Amino acid sequence: xxxxLVLVGSLRAGSINRKLAEAAEHHAPEGTxxxxxxxxxxxxxxxxxxxxxxxxxxxxxxxxxxxxxxALLLVTPEYNGTIPAVxxxxxxxxxxxxxxxxxxxxxxxxxGSAFGQYGGVWAHDDARKAAGIAGAKVLQDVKVAIPxxxxxxxxxxxREDAEVTKLVQDAxxxxxxxxxxQVAA
Length: 185
Description:
Helices cover 40% and strands 18% of the residues. By secondary structure, it is an alpha/beta fold. It has one domain: Flavodoxin domain (Rossmann fold), CATH 3.40.50. The two termini are 17 Å apart.
């Protein structure tokens, strides 16, 4: 069983990327469970001054959720050509404490959708870069960037799109394989 923690880079309840996370959960391969972590909204901006012996409760809960997961899936739009601040902040919290962070060595993949013609690839590249520097084992070959989301999903949920289903299932299979390799190592 592979437990995947999902972090959505959009806080909007009706966001396409939240729906994409729902599609991933709906179409998860057998033996893979996904849990979307909504608590990143509660994380204060990372500040080393408050991350000492008694870090904020939201950070403690977030780090525990990462620790309990076998892998992470970031589902993100692109804001002004880059990663949304809430997701970057979450990665900053996940990267600490230095040398013993819960994200260290965890398999991680990035997928998402954006309104533009490239589907958010700049944000996805930035998310992979930040997650890798934070210590995650980033799956560089998993690339799911769905363009023109507002038009494509205007009348349908991403889980009803056969191409999206296949892309998401392939991404989750890669995460499960990487998680299995991590356990075997």
